[in-house]
Write a structure and sequence with these properties.
The complex is a heterodimer of chains A (113) and B (260). With 113 residues, chain A is an all-alpha fold. Chain A has helices spanning 2-22, 26-46, 50-81. Chain B has one domain. Chain B is globular. Classes of the chains: A mainly alpha (113), B mainly alpha (260). The interface between A and B is medium-sized, with 32 and 33 residues.
């Protein structure tokens, strides 16, 4: 019985980890990473390591995805505004909408792909 | 090196690692077997010092020096982040505008905020008794605080989270661990020695210096995570590049080289 729970939890981790690799959009990847953190926490819990499960839950499924999402937002912020000349191919007008600057003031050197 | 050669090299390395792993795993004790030499000794030592949570006894008593190293790693990492993500000369601070939040999200986040904070503080305070401790509880407190950003907006978060005091608390938590360690040196002759009275088993004041070191780590981790997230949030929400102009002092890139 206990072994079945462990095997199911491990399979969930494998599925979530594979999904995290296959999803290519970093913002979605952060959410999948959060699910992976949750699955790992379950594994640690069924293996009777609640201390590690708590750490995994706090860091892996809350803190790391949050840092990733913030980094993605910062990087996209630079890329979205810069290429004004490219006829607004992305057409996004999110929270970070432009302030009417003259275009092309450069972006992060390691910008999004 | 050609692509085929690189793939062959990768296959060689991967197979080698796989073979070594299988070889190592066959030598491990069986899964779920009852013989735990290290665990038995750790439990015995923890109970002798009246610490109910053996993991905390290992972290803050038997291996307290290792924990000091880990705490310093976090401290140094956050210090590096603060230096790297500071506002540079060609960046300006744009005050964040009030954001529109859906009522359901606001209700949910505002109700969860006190629950999360209390849960985090509980985990820190009961580190020597039940699973968890300064690290886990500290991260829960720090991330829970940011529910205010989800519920209201960044300006509300900035009001309850001035950076200065948290940076100070980060350093104080790091220093408190050292001070407790030095106190152990003065009282018992070795650094981080557990020289305090052990107290009553399974009560809050048990385990000697374990609750003190646990609290120091909780303070350090909570403040460090708050400062870390503050650096990232400032960059994502507030700090933008200065518009190019006479005072910008920055070469404008050619239109072709910024889109990639």
């Amino acid at each position: 019985m206990a072994d079945t729970v462990i095997v199911v939890a491990l399979l969930l981790v494998a599925a979530a980890a594979t999904a995290a690799v296959l999803v290519r959009d970093p913002a979605r990847q952060a959410l999948v990473l959060s699910m992976l953190g949750l699955c790992l926490a379950v594994v640690f819990l069924v293996l009777q390591a609640p201390d590690v499960a708590l750490s995994q839950l706090a860091v892996g499924s809350a803190l790391t995805p949050l840092l990733l999402l913030l980094s993605v937002r910062k990087v996209r912020h630079g890329v979205r505004r810069a290429p004004r000349e490219r006829a607004g191919a992305r057409g996004e007008t999110g929270k970070t909408g432009g302030t009417g600057r003259p275009g092309g003031t450069g972006d992060d050197p390691g910008g999004a792909p | 090196m050609s692509r085929a050669a690189r793939l062959r090299l990768l296959a060689f390395g991967a197979l080698g690692v796989a073979a070594l792993l299988v070889w190592a795993y066959t030598g491990l004790p069986h899964f779920g077997q009852p013989h735990h030499p290290y665990g038995d000794r750790a439990v015995h030592a923890a109970l002798a010092r009246r610490t109910a949570n053996v993991v905390s006894a290992v972290n803050f008593d038997q291996r307290a020096f290792d924990t000091m190293g880990e705490e310093s790693i976090l401290f140094g990492a956050v210090l590096g982040t603060v230096v790297l993500l500071r506002q540079t000369r060609d960046e300006r601070e744009a005050p964040p505008r009030p954001a529109l939040v859906r009522p359901a999200v606001r209700r949910y986040a505002l109700r969860l905020l006190p629950v999360t904070l209390v849960a985090g503080l509980y985990i820190v305070a009961h580190g020597q008794l039940s699973p968890g401790g300064g690290f886990q509880g500290g991260v829960v407190v720090a991330t829970g605080l940011h529910l205010l950003y989800i519920a209201v907006d960044y300006r509300a978060l900035e009001k309850i989270r001035p950076r200065g005091p948290y940076e100070l608390a980060d350093a104080v938590g790091e220093g408190a661990y050292l001070v407790v360690g030095l106190a152990g040196f003065v009282a018992a002759g070795s650094f981080l020695a557990n020289a305090l009275p052990y107290g009553t088993f399974n009560s809050i004041a048990s385990g000697g210096s374990v609750p003190l070191l646990n609290a120091a780590v909780g303070m350090e981790v909570a403040s460090a995570v708050v400062v870390l997230l503050a650096c990232f949030l400032d960059q994502a929400v507030e700090i933008a590049r200065r518009p190019a102009g006479p005072g910008a002092g920055r070469r404008r890139p050619a239109p072709g080289d910024n889109g990639k």
